From TrEMBL:
Pfam family membership, one: GH3_M
Top-level lineage group: Bacteria
Organism: Dyadobacter linearis
InterPro entries: GH3, GH3_C, GH3_M
Residue ranges of every copy of the GH3 C-terminal domain listed in the record: 400-493
Name the UniProt record assigns to this protein: GH3 auxin-responsive promoter
Record domain GH3 middle: where: 298-361
Length: 507
């Protein structure tokens, strides 16, 4: 098997040398042209005159002038609901085989169309991901090991003329045949809908597998690993999977989980970040010398960038009419942007809900900085999730604790506002001192927050709770596992409901 692994590694190395990355800017022009050409006879294409856009000398500018920006509610209300009703040729040629049910943090009921063309793009990106692993200087034997992909159930829901499920389940149910020998937990276990039952079966079967790579959202991967270690009474997961070398993460910021995950391993892993959303496979980390991810500039998605500031984005995290929107060619490095997508699934100038910065424009590399609706600005504090995460890393160092989950909101204290935080914590430092330290760190690193603290934001409170409460709340209000993420910022009404849940479960 080692010989086979070396041959695979050499093939990947050779492929990487002969296939160079395209020029991102030129590739993006071609992608948009292909999208418009393919969809010009759909109802959407006729409404916004794609045929005329294609005749323009500058199709990007013409496209931006004619087609409005959409959030989910707008595009579903005006267009995608027809797809659920069985209509065809609405925003993309043909009908729908799949809808991805979003279980993200901004909505619990999104139906995202997933076309056959998008599945092809996801498979192409997946192959690129395997080829990318070759850049991380792994031994040849690694390429004969198995990959455990912890995602949602592949047992999709049949509804009339289409199937529904989370994107990880849809993707896993459409894996290429040749990948079957490498894929774990295998189709039978992957089809289990109940999270606890699925993890129990994985723990039972784990000794029979030779896992070299893990893939999944960090919080659920960690819970799975803890279950396996407990079930087999291990000191680390490497006792049962000695060849585990790589973890491809995604879905949420990884850094909060790095410290606690490391305790489950006997030696360090290589971490590779990915960006797979219900709307498509957007980016992957291609180089070991950076944690940034490279966009796929020629794989069925056209990207646009809206500067994330008050001139362009309203208090609800939506792009304002007439806001500045830039193509990849026009966007700049180290500026925070709201990301828009136009895709082969019939999303057009669609707000995916994430904010990013471009870290290397020539390589089309980005970092996710947060969510448009997880932006705390009720009293002008202008705190992004990225800034919150950075502040909590300082708290971890100062108090020697691990903080993986948190939820924050601006809540009333009489006629004034404070920021109230619930933090998961593995120890019990003084919560008043933690609040003071967090407040000082955020004031030092965010001038808007510092100004808010001198005016409308009158205080900061912190409650330290076990991380299990976050997961129990997720299980009872959403569901457990798969692509489910813990929200970081809540509106006051929702936050007070969460606070009541915490009090009940602590009591």
């Amino acid at each position: 098997m080692a010989v086979i692994g070396e041959l695979i590694k050499k093939a990947l190395d050779f492929t990487g040398r002969i296939i160079s990355d395209p020029d991102p800017v030129e590739a993006q022009k071609n992608v948009l042209k292909t999208l418009l050409e393919t969809a010009k006879l759909t109802a959407f294409g006729k409404q916004y005159q794609f045929s005329e856009i294609l005749e323009s000398d500058d199709i990007i500018s013409e496209f931006q002038n004619r087609v409005p920006v959409h959030d989910y509610d707008k595009i579903f209300g005006e267009w995608w609901h027809f797809l659920l009703e069985g209509h065809q040729n609405v925003t993309w040629p043909g009908g729908q085989s799949y809808f991805a049910l979003s279980s993200g943090t901004t909505s619990n009921s999104k139906y995202i169309p997933v076309t056959d063309e998008m599945l092809g793009c996801i498979r192409k990106a997946g192959i690129s991901e395997i080829a990318t692993i070759g850049a991380f200087n792994l031994p040849g034997d690694f390429f004969t090991k198995q990959i455990l992909m912890l995602g949602s159930s592949t047992n999709l829901i049949q509804k009339d003329d289409h199937q529904e499920g989370e994107i990880s389940g849809i993707s896993a149910s459409n894996l290429p045949t040749w990948f079957g020998g490498f894929y774990k937990p295998g189709p039978e276990i992957a089809a289990i809908s109940d999270w606890d039952e699925k993890v129990k079966r994985i723990a039972e079967e784990a000794p029979n597998w030779d896992i070299g790579c893990l893939s999944g959202i960090p919080s659920w991967i960690e819970l799975m690993l803890k279950e396996i270690i407990s079930y087999h009474k291990l000191n680390s997961i490497h006792e049962i999977w000695p060849n585990l070398m790589v973890y491809t993460t995604g879905g949420v910021a990884f850094e909060p989980y790095r410290k606690s995950l490391a305790k489950l391993f006997a030696r360090p892993l290589i971490y590779i970040d990915t960006y797979l959303a219900s709307e498509g496979f957007i980016a992957i980390q291609k180089r070991p010398e950076t944690s940034s991810m490279a966009l796929f500039p020629n794989n069925g998605i056209f990207y646009e960038f809206v500067p994330f500031n008050g001139d362009n984005v309203d208090e609800n995290g939506l792009v304002k009419p007439g806001g500045t929107v830039l193509s990849l060619a026009e966007a700049e490095e180290n500026v925070e942007y709201v990301l828009l997508l136009s895709t082969v699934s019939g999303a057009w100038r669609y707000m995916i809900g994430d904010t990013v910065t471009i870290t290397d424009k020539a390589r089309a590399e980005i970092k996710i900085t947060g969510r448009t609706k997880h932006f705390l600005n009720v009293v002008g504090s202008q705190l992004s999730v990225n800034q919150m995460n950075d502040g909590l890393r300082v708290i971890e160092q100062e108090y020697d604790v691990v903080i993986k989950e948190f939820i924050v909101a601006a809540v009333h204290r009489g006629d004034e506002y404070i920021h109230k935080w619930f933090l998961s914590c593995d120890k019990s430092p003084d919560k008043v001192k933690v609040a003071e330290s967090l407040d000082a760190t955020l004031s030092e690193n965010n001038k808007n927050y510092k100004v808010a603290r001198s005016r409308a934001l009158k205080g900061v409170e912190v409650e330290l709770i076990p991380e299990e409460i976050f997961y129990k709340w997720s299980e009872e209000t959403k569901k457990k596992g798969g692509q489910v993420k813990i929200p970081r910022v809540m509106k006051e009404e929702d936050f007070l409901e969460f606070a009541a849940f915490v009090e009940k479960n602590l009591g």
